[in-house]
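Example 3.2
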Amino acid sequence: QVQLVESGGGVVQPGKSLRLSCVASGDTFSMYAISWYRQAPGKQRELVAAMTTAGDPTYYVDSVKGRFTISRDDSKVTAYLQMNNLKLEDTAVYYCNAYRDPSTFYWGQGTQVTVSS
């Protein structure tokens, strides 16, 4: 069992930056791969970025390449999504996902990111 709590969202202007955090508890965090997803109004949930248990990125969706960075700090039991040069189309609820195997994965509650001019 893993509990995940996202934070760091807010309302920002285009071109600004935010860093999202995902704090875990309840199990050995280092055994879980971490992904960030987002869901905009009227759209399906979209995989944004993913990394291995060692913190090596395995995926960024094309629209965020060069702007977003996924990372983790196991000593703080926390995963991060650094978001730079935010665009209007980045507006969504962002979710943290911890994955161990097809029967063992967990979601956080989400944090709202709104990019508005």
